[in-house]
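Handout, section B. The chain below has 795 residues.
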Amino acid sequence: MRWLPYGTLAAAIAGAGSGVAVNGDQIDLTRAVVVVRSGQRSPAETMAATILVEELARRTQIRLPIRETWPKDAQTVIAISTRDAPPDWSARVPVRKGDNLPETKPEGYAIRVVTNSDGPTRAVIFVTGADGRGAMYGAGRLLRELSWARGAIRLDTSFEAAASPAYPIRGHQLGFRPRANAYDAWTPEQYDQYIRELVIFGANCIENIPFEDSPKSKVMRVSRDQMNVSLGEICARYDVDHWIWTPAVFSLKDQAKRKEELARHEAFYKSCPRLDAVFFPGGDPGNNPPDLVMPFLKDIAGLLAKHHPKAGVWISLQGFDDKKIDAFYAYLDQHKPTWLAGVVAGPSSPPIPDTRVRLPERYRLRWYPDITHCVLCQFEMHYWDPAFAMTLGREPVNPRPQAYARIFRFWAPHTDGFLTYSDGINDDVNKAVWSQLGWAPDCSVRDVLIQYARFFFCPDVAESAADALLGLENNWKGDLGLNGSVYAVLATWQDLERRHPELLADWRFQVHLMRAYYDAYTRARLLHEADLEKQAMAALARADGAGADRAMDDALGILRRAASNPCRPEWRARVAELAEAAFKSIGYQTSVERYGASGYERGAVMDFVDRPLNNRWWLEDEFAKIRKLPSPAEKLACLEVIRTWEDPGPGSFYDDVGHVGKSPHVVKGEGENTDPEQLRHDSFSHSWWDNGRSRRRLSWHHHMRWPAGLAYEALDPTASYIVRLTGNGEPRLRANGVRLEPTRTSRNIGEFKEYPVPEALIASGKLRLTFDPIDESHLNWRQHSHVAEVWLLKR
């Protein structure tokens, strides 16, 4: 039997009418037979064929047969095995020589197409793994590359691949707890399918949260104890590592609680079919020092070894101050614990490069990156438009493939891999991208998205859907009012919906289509409501003649047109329809009241879809206060302050510090490409007051801790200037390096702070404002000082 590369005989086979090739460049797999080797196979190798056959049947209605003996009558074969194939396979499997090839490394695989010039079997697709997992990942790669439709399966004849992962740890947290925005509504079968899909994109571990957030949510259909066992069973079935995240939110000095916690751990270990790692976060949550944590973890390790001898214990240094960090490393130096597998670097941890340098080489370093949140998180959106921050909030559907690829490439080389922080399905695209970066850090992000769209949507829309996903990320860049491409992105998604209405049954399509409508609706509202506020300010300008009360009545009447005459109601209705569909199909909880979201920060975007995007709420409250003033002159004076708030007049300047479109003088500092966690330069942040329904002025919600500076040019050197601020706390302000002393101060949000500028500092016509750092490490980060608005007022 003579085996040759398929392309050699492609035309001949097509010409012979065998049905194996189509137009000489594709193999027809509709009648293919999947062959696996007989005898002992690992769970992963067994699952390789199962995944391939079941996922193709789900998409094409074609169920390929699986055989353990080589078929004598099949024209096309998909042969799945490992490099240590038994003798009857050895002559068939095209294995290249060499010890450093990708397919020889752990979890590696090779996919090759060969053809036979004689006999009934005309084409064979060999999927050969370095081990069982490699065979499974090879099957996943094949699935991501196949062209398929109802009743059809094809593969390009030129396709071949050989790959192995760059990082040994590649996983995602899928904690079954009430805080998740979807997972808590799932059954074991839904978890199984989702973990399978993560495996198809290259993940090799998942992390559960078995203890924390113990109350049952109203959407849970399975008990936590049952799901905790089921997740171990699923991991065992797919031969992927099972981690658990187990904080201690009590004082470890409490011996009774400590004993109770150890007993709870051991009971779980005993019940769990597979467990590979226990991760203990040092802080976030928890507040125990290393001298209590390490002996506790040593006891945990002893219990773990009884039931899962190969499992390891990991710890993060999250929330540790310098003293605690030093104490941790002193413990390692003194005790050299063999039970400790490694350290996890998560949000609020010491810098990853510093940790790797200081950590003894025998311990591994795992990354715990937050890929699920947008604000008040590890990797905040860089200058996110406040209209999104106030409506989409902290945890929306958030494909950020370009940003996360930059972040991954910045930090990952210092680590042994990652297990991401996720609280639901909102970051599904990010999981796929992150998993593939774990295999090939330099891979094309767009190519990953094409594979994502081909596999989950359909090959016909793979490229256009990939670009549509990139469009959702680009929707969030810059000033929303100036980003006209938001409507073009919606048009792209609408075209996909029109061409393939069957995709509306797929939850991934539902949630991303919903985001496209949501973004477009938000922009339309922003433009409409900004114009209404502009008209309202014009009404206040007539207060001198019309009277204060009449001017306020007119302004409120204008502002309330946003509710009485809303813009784009059809887009608003479509967002609601898709949110309902996503809840029914995947349990996605986009509202606290309607769908049972665990909190308003937890993906409850439907609770804020109509939140005012102008200052209507604040103006209503301010007008009510002004009406109570005793004299018309006082009323008029207050209305004039409001009218000129963002327009202080010729020669004066205003910056809404946290608004990308209203901060022309703010020095932006570094971006995510060189400072991903914004450790050297603060970026925009957002305060989430009153469960997202605060009626404060919008400019007070978005702010910066300390801007890198504010720069002014062409000032009048003969004039006097004063700096006015709003924000939280008491900033230490400098002008051209000279410390300014306030003449008006307040620590309260929304109240003015004022600093006269010595005339000598203006002589050059240039001014740069900077802020001295303030040590507030004793405070929760949500209480830190910040700057919201800055005026430079010409007297």
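Note. DSSP finds 25 helices and 29 strands in the chain. Compare this with the example in section A.
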